[in-house]
Amino acid sequence: MNFCSHCGQPVRFAIPDMDNRPRYLCDHCGSIHYQNPRLITGTLPVAPDDRILLCRRAIEPRLGYWTLPAGFMENGETVVAGALRETLEEAQVKAHNPVLLSMISLPEFDQVHIFYRVDMPDFHYDVTPESSAVELFEIDALPWDQIAFRTVTATLEHFLAVRDQEVPAVLTGAIEPR
What we know:
The chain is of the alpha+beta class. The protein folds into two domains: 1-35, Ubiquitin Ligase Nedd4, Chain: W (Single Sheet), CATH 2.20.70; 38-174, Nucleoside Triphosphate Pyrophosphohydrolase (Alpha-Beta Complex). Helix content is 15%, strand content 33%. The chain has helices at residues 79-91, 150-162; strands at residues 12-14, 23-25, 32-33, 38-46, 52-57, 66-67, 70-72, 96-106, 111-119, 131-137, 171-174. Strands 7-4-9-8-11 form a five-stranded mixed sheet. The protein has a three-stranded antiparallel sheet with strand order 1-2-3, with no helix packed on it. Strands 6-5-10 form a three-stranded antiparallel sheet, with no helix packed on it. β2 and β3 (32-33) form a beta hairpin. The longest helix is centred in the middle third of the chain and has 13 residues, at 79-91. The two termini are 27 Å apart.
């Protein structure tokens, strides 16, 4: 950040009084510009026959790799609403019964990824501008070596470990830089 978004004057990067982290500060108007993590929210859709839905990414990053439907949460929506919206946008799935499955911090990228297990009421899904392919996978046929993101791998592994639990434990933690 070079200029204040409030007044347009140059900013400096320093620790404000009574704070403990450096922030962008505007000496002209006094604004402190806080930068906070972004939330990525998505789902792990499960079909009535227990197959798992994955999307092949049609966009960067990780073009061509498989992922769960997910994306940035928008202002004015809840985490669940964002996850269901992304599932519809990326896979044309009208998901139901969201159950929190994982919440994983990525401090390296200033992100938190939150995934819900959801039911697919039917077998309807389709490609979209963001997904070049959308497929249902048997558990023993998941394309592990082609998964786009470590949070997706962790969420899939966790789902497989807790899928028989009536109230599944939530995976929490962080993925540190490699």
